[in-house]
Design a protein that fits this description.
single chain; 8-stranded mixed β-sheet; binds ligand BES; binds manganese (II) ion; binds zinc ion
Length: 513
């Protein structure tokens, strides 16, 4: 779908989208349209339940006095409530209404009402972003699209009209690069596990070299040499070879100069680092999961999907930052060579782990990936993302991710950035009480808690043993990675929760201006 920007104006054909504030206050464009149609717009509004609330919309088909397919009036809500997040939602709503409506083209008139914190151009950009994000579609395996209820969208071109169109067009370029990262994440998470497994997922990472990323893929022999006994233990029941992928984006201006001069990297150039759980399918291993719902475990590589999409976003918009993305890729299968409950593995950090449940595998993969990240890159911070525990869904549901951290500043930054773009996180505690529950009689640490509750907290506490003093945060995204219903800026399925949040956090706090 083509998205373009143009100066204030209207459209003669296709669909025309105008805003109406709460209490049915028409924007100037809506007013003009009401006039052209001989008052039909206002009559339609009055004859229905539309009141201009954000999330509401009203379609007026083939309006007389025009050659338009339809008019779509969208509720802007209260002017002082219209922020970036609300504008994303508006854009998403417009796509939901028009994507399959029959209209091929749409023109959106972006007019910020008085008292709105966004200018016309910022409103236009955020609406376009929401629209783009909602337009995602994964249909590569549907060979008979027309014959089922998943018909192809009709809308192919959208023009957003606003004051400051040139500025908006420019700002949207970067937003659209981030959307490309989001779409990559959704693609990867949606792929079936017979197609997407460690080797093929690593190949998808390698394709990012086109964008200027440095990508290294380590195979089992190299991981063995590094001593990654925990990660390898998870993958040993699978016929697919385990992999660890390291992606580097060196976009900070200073790092380039230092490189040319051959100078050692200074502390200021230290990268930010993202680590992702990439279990391409989690059967549970010998601690086998029940069959009902096991198909969901194709998205157990969701954390790695976010890291890969984020690296694509940062490189795509040429972020002025040094960033490292590391993903641990394994398939957790039962089999003759699978690890057993009570096995003891030695991690790269030297700590030994008693594996009491082979279904608590994500933390084993991350233990080695986190240690490697710390050891090799000495990053400013590490943020890991993982579909780590079912318990986080019990605690926070499907819309909010769990946050765990050893650092208040980092936690606040993540929380703030999430609020701005509409991906909410909630922090849960880490402390000695939980840490003690991980002590093992046989090894240094056990992979499941000896206690009953607090499953997400003890899982995070396990990760913390492999972090040391580096500022670190862990996002448990088990509940938010896949949605069974349409969301404002994401159709049902893979959400890519985390890509926009972390892209925004990098932009707001870590990019050299
Ligand atoms: N991948 C699962 C967690 C999960 C559950 C992700 C539901 C997405 C949706 C993880 O590897 C797992 O199996 N965790 C266990 C831990 C338990 C064995 C301590 C769980 O949550 O039951
Ligand atoms: Mn598991
Ligand atoms: Zn898992």
């Amino acid at each position: 779908m083509k998205i373009a920007f143009s100066g204030p104006g209207s459209a003669a054909t296709g669909a025309l989208v105008v805003g109406v504030s709460e209490g049915n206050k028409l924007t100037p464009a809506a007013k003009a349209l009401d006039k052209t149609t001989g008052g039909a717009l206002m009559r339609a509004i009055k004859g229905g339940t539309f009141t201009g609330k954000n999330g509401q919309s009203l379609s007026l088909l083939a309006p007389t006095g025009t050659r338009l397919d339809r008019i779509l009036a969208v509720g802007l809500g209260k002017p002082d409530d219209i922020d970036e997040k609300a504008a994303h939602k508006l854009g998403g709503q417009i796509y939901a209404d028009l994507g399959k409506s029959g209209s091929k083209s749409a023109t959106i008139v972006a007019e910020a009402p008085e008292k709105c914190e966004l200018g016309d151009d910022a409103l236009a950009v955020a609406m376009a972003e929401g629209l783009r994000l909602r337009s995602y579609r994964f249909d590569k395996y549907q060979t008979k699209t027309k014959s089922n209820n998943n018909a192809k969208p009709t809308l192919t071109s959208v023009t957003v009209c606003c004051k400051g169109a040139a500025k908006a067009k420019d700002a949207f370029k970067a937003r659209d690069k981030v959307a490309e990262g989001v779409f990559l994440t959704r693609d990867l998470v949606t792929e079936p596990p017979n197609v997407l497994y460690p080797e093929t997922l690593a190949k998808r990472c390698q394709e990012l070299t086109k964008l200027g990323l440095k990508v290294q893929v380590l195979g089992e022999s190299q991981l063995k040499r590094l001593g990654m006994g925990a990660l390898l233990g998870v993958g040993q029941g699978s016929v697919r070879e385990s992999k660890l992928v390291v992606m580097q984006w060196n976009g900070a201006p200073k790092a380039k100069a230092a490189k040319k001069g051959g100078k050692a990297r200074t502390k200021a150039d230290a990268p930010v680092c993202f680590v992702g759980k990439g279990v391409t399918f989690d059967t549970g291993g010998i601690s086998l999961k029940p069959s009902a719902g096991m198909e969901d475990m194709k998205y157990d590589m969701g954390g790695s999907g976010v890291v890969i999409g984020l690296m694509k976003a940062l490189a795509g918009r040429k972020a002025r930052v040094n960033a490292v993305g590391i993903v641990g890729l394994v398939e957790n299968m039962p089999g003759a060579n699978a690890q057993r409950p009570s096995d003891v593995v030695t991690t790269m950090s030297g700590q030994t782990v008693e594996v009491l449940n082979t279904d608590a595998e994500g933390r084993l993969v991350l233990a080695d990936a986190l240690h490697y990240a710390n050891d090799r890159f000495k990053p400013k911070f590490i943020i890991d993302l993982a579909t780590l525990t079912g318990a986080i869904i019990v605690a926070l549901g499907d819309d909010i991710a769990g946050l765990f951290s050893n650092n208040d500043t980092l936690s606040e930054r993540i929380t703030e950035s999430g609020k701005k773009i509409g991906e909410e996180v909630w922090r849960l505690p880490q402390n000695d009480i939980f840490d003690k529950m991980l002590n093992s009689d046989i090894a240094d640490i056990r992979n499941i808690s000896s206690g009953r509750g607090a499953g997400s907290i003890t899982a995070a506490q396990f990760l913390g043993r492999f972090i040391g003093k580096t500022p670190w945060a862990h996002l448990d995204i088990a509940g938010v990675t896949w949605s069974k219903k349409d969301l404002p800026v994401s159709p049902k399925g893979a959400t890519a929760f985390g890509v926009r949040l972390l892209d925004r956090m990098v932009a707001d706090y870590y990019e050299k201006k």
